[in-house]
UniProtKB/TrEMBL annotation:
It comes from Aureimonas pseudogalii. The active site is at S305 (phosphoserine intermediate). Catalyzes the synthesis of activated sulfate. InterPro entries: APS, APS_kinase_dom, GTP-eEF1A_C, P-loop_NTPase, Transl_B-barrel_sf, Transl_elong_EF1A/Init_IF2_C. Pfam families: APS_kinase (PF01583), GTP-eEF1A_C (PF22594). ATP binds at G231, L232, S233, G234, A235, G236, K237, S238. Pathway: Sulfur metabolism; hydrogen sulfide biosynthesis; sulfite from sulfate: step 2/3. GO terms for biological process: hydrogen sulfide biosynthetic process; sulfate assimilation. Its EC number is 2.7.1.25. This is Adenylyl-sulfate kinase. It is an enzyme of class 2 (transferase). The gene is cysC. Residues 224-372 form the APS kinase domain. Belongs to the APS kinase family. It catalyses: adenosine 5'-phosphosulfate + ATP = 3'-phosphoadenylyl sulfate + ADP + H(+).
Length: 397
C-alpha cells in the first residue's frame, strides 16, 4: 500500500536555481531520477537526471519534507518560491481564485485593499475583489452578509498581481493553503484555503493565454477587415468612408479611419506627390492598416492610391479576404467640377505640379471587390452598398 503523503502529486518549493540544477523543499509527493517535471507558471518541462540531499550526498528518491538538489536535462530560470511539479499531475495556475478566509485583521476585511498573499512558497500582492458570503464556523453553512469582522470566516474572490500555482486545498493542503499579511510588516492578518481558480487559465500553461490577433478580434466581437477606398481627388472617398464609419460605429463596431489628408499632416508629413513619395505614402499606410487589423479593428483607408502596383502591395500585406478594394468611380470632369479645395483650378493654372488626373496618372482598379458609381447617389447610400457587400460575405455578423 502506498503512503498517502507520497501518493500525493509531487510539489517542490524552489529555494535556489542554478542553470540545470534546482534546489528546494518537497511539499508533497515523491521524486526520483527519470521523472518528468514542470515549472508550474512557465509550463516548461524537463527530466530529472540526479538527486542529492542538502549535504551533497546522492539520493535514489526524495519525499515530502526533504530538502533536495535536483539535476535536470534542461536549464530553467526560476526564482525562489516558484513551484515545480510532476509533469503528469500539474497544479492549477491562475491570477484569480475563490478561497475561504479566516480573517484576523484588527478591523473588518476591506475589498480592494492591497495585501500580501503567500501560497505554498510563492508571494504576490493581491486583494479581495468580492466577498461572496460569510461562513458559519460550526455548521460550515453560508451566512448572509458581506461584512467580515475579526474572527469571522468568508468565501471570497481574490485577485493576484501575477498568476500563482496552486492545488485546491481539499486536494493538497501544502499547496492550497494561503496566508495573508499587510504589505509592510509580518503580522498575519488571515489564513485561507483555495477552493478553485476563477479563470479559464486554470490548468493550462500560462503561455496558452498569450493575447493574439484572434483574441483581440474576438473580444471586440468582429471580423477585422481593411476597406480601401481609391479614386481621384474629389471623387467622394472621404465622404463615403465617413458615412460608412458612422454606420459601423452606430452598430457597435470598433473602427479607425485613415485618411490621406490627415495622415499627411503627421506620420507622412515628410512626403509630397512625386511618384516615389506616393509609393512610400501607401507603403506606410498599408503597414499601419495591417497593425490595426492585428489589433482587431475594422480599418477604413481613404487614399487616392493611384498606382495598381501599390494597391497590390497593400493587398499582399494582409490576409486572404482582409483587403477590400473599393473603387470610388467618379469621372474626372465631375471631380473637377466639385473642386471643393480649389486644387484642380490651381493645378490647371500651373500652381500645383503632379496633380492626379492632370499631369500625374490614375490607374483605375481592374477587378475591385466593390465599384461605387457615384453619379446621383449620396455618400450614405453608397456606404449602404459597402455594408450590403460585407453582410453578404459574412464579415458583419
Ligand atoms: N498633386 C496632388 N495630387 C493629388 N492630390 C493632392 C496633390 N496635392 C495635394 N493633394 C491633396 O492630397 C490629397 C491626396 O493625398 P493621398 O495621400 O490620398 O494621395 S496618394 O494616395 O499618395 O496619391 C488629396 O486629397 P483628396 O482630395 O481627399 O483625395 C488632395 O487634397
Ligand atoms: N456622392 C456624392 N454626391 C455628391 N457630392 C459628393 C458625393 N461624395 C462627395 N461629394 C462632395 O464632393 C466633394 C469631395 O468629396 P471628398 O469625400 O472630399 O472626396 P475625396 O476624399 O475623394 O477627395 C465634397 O465637397 C463632397 O461633399
Amino acid at each position: 500500500m502506498s503512503d498517502p503523503a507520497t501518493a500525493a502529486p509531487f510539489r517542490l518549493a524552489i529555494s535556489a536555481s542554478r542553470g540545470p540544477e534546482i534546489e528546494g523543499r518537497v511539499l508533497s509527493g515523491r521524486v526520483a531520477a527519470g521523472d518528468r517535471l514542470v515549472a508550474a507558471t512557465s509550463g516548461r518541462t524537463a527530466g530529472v537526471t540526479s538527486l542529492r540531499n542538502g549535504a551533497g550526498e546522492p539520493l535514489d528518491a526524495a519525499q515530502v519534507g526533504d530538502h533536495v538538489v535536483l539535476g535536470l536535462d534542461d536549464a530553467w530560470s526560476l526564482t525562489p518560491g516558484d513551484l515545480v511539479a510532476g509533469a503528469d499531475r500539474r497544479p492549477a495556475v491562475a491570477d484569480q481564485v475563490a478561497a475561504d478566509i479566516d480573517w484576523r485583521g484588527e478591523g473588518p476585511l476591506i475589498p480592494g485593499r492591497n495585501l500580501s498573499f503567500t501560497v505554498g512558497a510563492q508571494t504576490a500582492t493581491g486583494s479581495v475583489t468580492e466577498i461572496r458570503h460569510r461562513i458559519d464556523p460550526r455548521s460550515g453553512q453560508a451566512l448572509a452578509g458581506k461584512i467580515v469582522g475579526t474572527g469571522e470566516t468568508a468565501r471570497v474572490n481574490l485577485t493576484f498581481a501575477r498568476a500563482l500555482a496552486f492545488d485546491p486545498f481539499t486536494e493538497n493542503e501544502a499547496t492550497g493553503a494561503l496566508t495573508i499579511r499587510a504589505l509592510s510588516g509580518d503580522a498575519i492578518l488571515g489564513t485561507g484555503r483555495i477552493a478553485f481558480g476563477l479563470r479559464r487559465a486554470t490548468n493550462i500553461h500560462w503561455q496558452a493565454v498569450d493575447i493574439d490577433r484572434a483574441a483581440r478580434a474576438e473580444i471586440k466581437g468582429q471580423v477585422p477587415v481593411c476597406l480601401w477606398f481609391t479614386g481621384l481627388s474629389g471623387a467622394g472617398k472621404s465622404a463615403i468612408a465617413n458615412a460608412l464609419e458612422r454606420a459601423l460605429f452606430s452598430v457597435g463596431r470598433h473602427t479607425y479611419l485613415l485618411d490621406g489628408d490627415n495622415v499627411r499632416h503627421g506620420l507622412n508629413r515628410d512626403l509630397g506627390f512625386t511618384e516615389a513619395d506616393r509609393v512610400e505614402n501607401i507603403r506606410r499606410v498599408a503597414e499601419t492598416a495591417r497593425l490595426m487589423l492585428d489589433a482587431g479593428l475594422i480599418v477604413l483607408a481613404s487614399f487616392i492610391s493611384p498606382f495598381r502596383a501599390d494597391r497590390a502591395m497593400a493587398r499582399a500585406l494582409m490576409g486572404e479576404g482582409e483587403f477590400v478594394e473599393i473603387f470610388v468611380d467618379t469621372p474626372l470632369a465631375v471631380a473637377e467640377a466639385r473642386d471643393p479645395k480649389g486644387l484642380y483650378r490651381r493645378a490647371r493654372a500651373g500652381e500645383i505640379r503632379n496633380f492626379t488626373g492632370l499631369d500625374s496618372p490614375y490607374e483605375p482598379p481592374l477587378s475591385p471587390e466593390i465599384r461605387l458609381a457615384t453619379g446621383g447617389s449620396t455618400p450614405e447610400a453608397l456606404a449602404e452598398e459597402v455594408l450590403a457587400y460585407l453582410a453578404s460575405r459574412g464579415t458583419l455578423r
